[in-house]
Amino acid sequence: MSNKGQMRLGAFFNPTGHHVASWRHPDAQADAGINFAHYAEITRTAERAKFDLILLGDSLAVPGTYQGRMDAYLRYAEHAPFHDPSPLVAIMAAATRRIGLAATLSTTFYPPFLLARLMTTLDHLSRGRIAWNVVTSYKREEALNFGYQELLDHDQRYDRADEYMELCYQLWASWEPDAVVMDPRTDTFADPAKVRAIDFEGTYYRSRGPLNATPSPQGRPVIIQAGTSERGQEFAARHAEAIIVGRETPDEMKRFYDAFKARMRKLGRHPDECKIFFLVKPIIGDTDEAAQQRADALYAIYRRFDASHPTPKAN
Predict the structure, then answer these.
(1) What is the domain-level CATH number for residue 88?
(2) CB 223 within 8 A of CB 216
(3) Domain count of the chain?
(4) Is residue 35 part of a domain?
(5) Contact in structure between 28 and 14 (CB atoms under 8 Å)
(6) Model pTM score
(7) Handedness of CA 135, 140, 145, 147 (dihedral sign)
(8) pLDDT per position as a tens digit, 148-174
């Protein structure tokens, strides 16, 4: 039976909620961002609701942009905390059977070989349900955490990410799907003729290969991307199998959809090879009135807390 026209649903999990007041609501689980059992429970809930995917975002630094300080971000749990998504995805995989699981990992700070092997391992652990949300990172604070003073400029990060992807593709393909035979009669675990070095040498990266992990159920993870700039959309149209997009109205969504699918055709890809997920932030109640009351409460908490806890001025 064709599933054309069928709605796809993904849940974007933020440890402290997507509304800045979420974790302070009286009915909220305030420790959700550090209670790792909650990650498993929310994934089971999404699976019962027939969601296709749950995605863990990530950041590699506590920001310090506002007033040049970290105070506001830590006080309000805004872009902090974030724990490493890779082991969290493993926990979520153990708790579920069907739902897709996406981890956000940066091409700027993860070596390609390490990332390719990590994704392969997670795909094995999840029995073929892993996706990679590809980011190039943009915060200077992230660069400082890794010992760099600055990031490459925006478009150059994507240029390097294109090469990064090509290297990962070659690493994932360095074992043929039937390379593992595990035949004790011939003392052969893997057929050496079906595993090869890649000897990759590009502008930014080199790798001998092959990957030293056996082929996973999918062969490689599903590729997700959320770049909205012209260069980011070009990258997504070339590589992504799903993209995450924020647009306000149905007309804006339709214009983006048509333009992005045309971009894919220009690059020689069939438009159906990439799904488009538009972001929504629903506030849910049993009735419209109950949902509105919950929304009003969230904004009231935010206004009250913001008024009584002013951010200290920078010295």
Answers:
(1) 3.20.20.30
(2) no
(3) 1
(4) yes
(5) no
(6) 0.88
(7) positive
(8) 988 889 999 999 999 999 999 999 999
